[in-house]
Amino acid sequence: MTPALEATGLGVRYRRTWALRDCSLAVPAGRVAALVGPNGAGKTTLMHAAVGLLRPARGSVRVAGEAAFVAQDKPLYDSFTVAEMLAFGRRMNRRWDGDAAAGRLGALGIPLDRKVSGLSGGQQAQVAVTLALAVRPDLLVLDEPLANLDPLARHDVMRSIMAEVAERELTVLLSSHVVSDLEETCDWLVVLNGGRLQVSGDIEELLDGHRVLTGPDGASAAGVRVVSASRTGRQVSMLVRGACPPDPRWRARRPGLEELVMGYLRSPESAALPDLTGVGA
Amino acid sequence: MIEFDLDRGSGVSTYLQLVHQVKQALRLGTLRPGDQLPTAREVVESLAINPNTVLKAYRELEREGLVEGRPGMGTFVRQGVAGPTLAEHTRLRRTLEAWVREARAAGLDQEDLRALFAVVLADAAKEGAA
């Protein structure tokens, strides 16, 4: 199966600084991929490269079909009404499903004659997402779609994106630094740290393939792939990949998504990347 | 019809929560043979979860023979599912209610009841295995 988004040896440089280097990943079609990492990790750079807003210095990035992008500062014109934004979108795009867009906004109770500046933050986010979906993209790329939204608006925005994914084969790549927002909605995880790719894979498989171990200082962890470890007093706690050590003093459990992400971000040199040959399966 | 709800932060994965809720509804008779499960879109629109999670839960229920997917129509509870259990359900529930009243009268609180029930259930499982 052709991945919806594929990067091979991707490197992006701003003057002398590499914002992204040696990034190879493939997101299968129909997935909702979470792109996480601290500020300056290269998330926005990767998204800009994916939708063709910047040219990579090394390697390549490829999208199967059309991509639509919603930037973090919701790209709407304050003085336009919602209807004018829709008309603007129609003129700017070859592919445009205006009926679906108007229907979506109607169902959300957003008045078409209201000026953008008169909408709530949540409504503005919904309009921006609606405009992006009206292009009928194969890949929807959202930079921090939930930033600055209250919990109810966050829930509403995710509900409408998930409904669109249920309706047709749409792949979504969305960035956030609040991992708890993504736990229920995403099924693919991409972790960037300091411009390097640390993790790319199916979330269930990643969680099944890792364990959080706690045990006494001195318990043997021979032969175990340790992602990160921390020590409090005489107790050691580790995130490990693959099989557990035989030493019976370890207590093991499956990590949560947030624990997995934090474990990797704390150890930038660790990585969990599949063989690229196995990704499309 | 069943309406799902999620216990976020329960540690149980979302797809398993959906599977458990369907099984529970079958046991309680709120879902019966021939009933339709909500579509992935309906679930997703109310819970804001990934549609693949819903499909995974429905596949699991299908694999266990509890529901069947009818192409273009939806997912339905299979005929014959939970029939005999359901008939016995009301009678067993009455017996259990009487037992709970008796235990309360004897001074057991909610925690005591749960512990006692769990112990008996575990013992019964052991006997069954022996």
From TrEMBL, chain A:
One annotated GO molecular function: ATP binding
Keyword Signal listed: no
Gene3D superfamilies in the cross-refs: P-loop containing nucleotide triphosphate hydrolases
Annotated coiled-coil segments of the chain: none
SMART domains tied to this protein: AAA
The ABC transporter domain, residue ranges: 5-219
Matching PROSITE patterns: ABC_TRANSPORTER_2
Signal sequence interval, chain numbering: none
Pfam families: ABC_tran
Xref: CDD domains: ABC_DR_subfamily_A
Domain of life of the native organism: Bacteria
InterPro entries attached to this UniProt entry: AAA+_ATPase, ABC_transporter-like_ATP-bd, ABC_Transporter_VariousFunc, P-loop_NTPase
Keywords in alphabetical order: ATP-binding, Nucleotide-binding, Transport
Name of this chain's protein: ABC transporter ATP-binding protein
Organism: [Actinomadura] parvosata subsp. kistnae
From TrEMBL, chain B:
Coiled-coil segments: none
SUPFAM superfamilies according to UniProt: Winged helix' DNA-binding domain (SSF46785)
The protein, known as: GntR family transcriptional regulator
Keyword annotations of the record: DNA-binding, Transcription, Transcription regulation
The keyword DNA-binding appears for this protein: yes
A molecular function (GO) term: DNA-binding transcription factor activity
Keyword check for Iron: no
Residue stretches making up the HTH gntR-type domain: 12-80
Gene3D superfamilies hit by this protein: Winged helix-like DNA-binding domain superfamily/Winged helix DNA-binding domain (1.10.10.10)
A Pfam family reported for this protein in Swiss-Prot or TrEMBL: GntR
UniProt cross-references to CDD domains, sorted A to Z: WHTH_GntR
Species, as recorded: [Actinomadura] parvosata subsp. kistnae
